[in-house]
Specification:
Rossmann fold, 10 helices, ABC_transporter-like_CS, four-stranded antiparallel beta sheet, P-loop_NTPase, binds adenosine-5'-diphosphate, globular, binds magnesium ion, transport, alpha/beta, 10 strands, ATP hydrolysis activity, ATP-binding, about 260 residues
């Protein structure tokens, strides 16, 4: 029986110099849920994501994925275990097409070395075809088939966000961390992104943890919301209860 808690963060802390960016923070994310993480600027949300995804080593505390202690494991290992966070498409990939950007996602395929390609050309071609089909399926799912052959660098901000989400889908993730995926995106595209997240959650069973400033976005998508302030857990509950919580409102207003 899989445990209901997919990710468990226990008493995680990290300090930069004298500043406790994340301070004794605990968090549980249920399998199959869409969790929201909110809090004023500087609350430690991105740092918490970076700790969970292995970009920073915590000073103390631990992170469990599916019952396994993954504390401090490097991002590429966590990637292989299905724990992903999105990043902006790197500049060196901007001349590749959207489809090629998807096909570039490391998935441990045997065709990735030139030696393998020389030794097993037939297999490489088959795998490349499978990879291309997977990429096309994802473009279709995200309703961005029309941009498949465009260079990533020419896409709009919102299309790039969808492509970033698509890149995580290539890795067959269990849990995806999205840090302000809606920042600087217009309303229409924000709803396209929200819809993609909802469908990935319901139809494909992906678990999400979202940091987002748009409270409507959070309220519509999230089953549970956690609010951080000054590196610490401030409040946790349903979106409705959190957004009407006095302590949360005060933290945002900075009183
Ligand atoms: P949020 O994402 O909630 O806005 P961050 O996690 O980015 O907050 O930052 C939390 C605090 O930690 C801030 O005061 C920020 O300046 C500080 N901080 C974040 N990353 C670093 C770093 N690499 N070095 C020093 N201070 C950092
Ligand atoms: Mg941040």
């Amino acid at each position: 029986m899989p445990q209901p808690d997919l990710l468990v963060v226990q008493n995680l802390s990290i300090a930069f110099g004298g500043l406790k960016a994340v301070d004794d923070m605990s968090l549980t994310i249920r399998r199959g849920s869409v969790a929201g993480l909110i809090g004023p600027n500087g609350a430690g949300k991105s740092t918490l994501f970076n700790l969970i995804a292995g970009y920073y080593q915590p000073d103390s505390g631990r992170v469990m994925l599916d019952g396994e202690d993954i504390t401090g494991q490097p991002p590429h290992l966590l990637f292989g275990k299905g724990l992903l966070r999105t990043f902006q498409i790197a500049r060196e990939f901007s001349t590749l097409t959207a489809r090629e950007n998807l096909m570039m996602v490391p998935a441990g395929q045997s065709g990735e070395t030139w030696l393998g390609a020389l030794l097993r050309p037939g297999r490489v071609r088959r795998e490349e075809r499978a990879l291309r089909e997977k990429a096309d399926d994802i473009l279709d799912f995200l309703q961005i088939t029309s941009i498949a052959d465009l260079p990533a660098g020419s896409l709009s901000g919102g299309q790039k966000k969808l492509l970033e989400l698509g890149r995580t889908m290539m890795a067959d993730p269990k849990i995806i961390f999205l840090d302000e995926v809606g920042a600087g995106v217009n309303r229409t595209l924000l709803y396209t992104i929200a819809d993609a997240i909802r469908r990935l959650n319901r139809e494909r069973g992906y678990t999400f943890c979202l940091v987002e400033h748009d409270m409507q976005f959070i309220a519509e998508l999230c089953d549970e919301v956690t609010c951080m302030a000054q590196g610490r857990l401030l409040s946790r509950g349903t979106a409705e209860s959190i957004l009407s919580d006095e302590a949360v409102i005060e933290a945002y207003l900075g009183r």
